[in-house]
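Quick one, tokens below. Sequence please?
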């Protein structure tokens, strides 16, 4: 699938190769998806996936980073053109997503400069 990345005022957007205006007719679940993922030895991420109001194909993936159990920062990704199941899969597999891991790494390095 074709995915395009772009920066937004609220973080980073990852677009799935669909028309931006496409909206599914079935309502998305308003439940929040939460997950803690080890990223590297002492680095963990608390992930929170939230639906975008009025859009069933857009999700906000909030990433709170912790190093040795201490807060290390936060960033977010907007997932455009994803079903709920696809967005949850992106969150679960964040460690294997080279783009997201690179952005997290750059964010952490910029915080230390």
């Amino acid at each position: 699938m074709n995915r395009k990345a772009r920066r937004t005022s609220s973080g980073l957007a990852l677009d799935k190769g669909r028309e931006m205006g496409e909206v599914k007719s079935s309502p998305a679940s308003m439940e929040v998806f939460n997950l803690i993922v080890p990223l590297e030895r002492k680095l963990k991420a608390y992930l929170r996936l939230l639906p975008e109001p009025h859009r069933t194909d857009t999700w906000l993936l909030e990433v709170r980073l912790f190093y040795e159990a201490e807060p290390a920062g936060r960033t977010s990704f907007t997932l455009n053109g994803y079903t709920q199941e696809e967005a949850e899969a992106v969150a679960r597999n964040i460690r294997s997503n080279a783009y997201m891991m690179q952005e997290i790494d750059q964010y952490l390095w910029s915080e230390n400069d």
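The first strand starts at residue 3 and ends at 8. The two ends are 36 Å apart (CA to CA).
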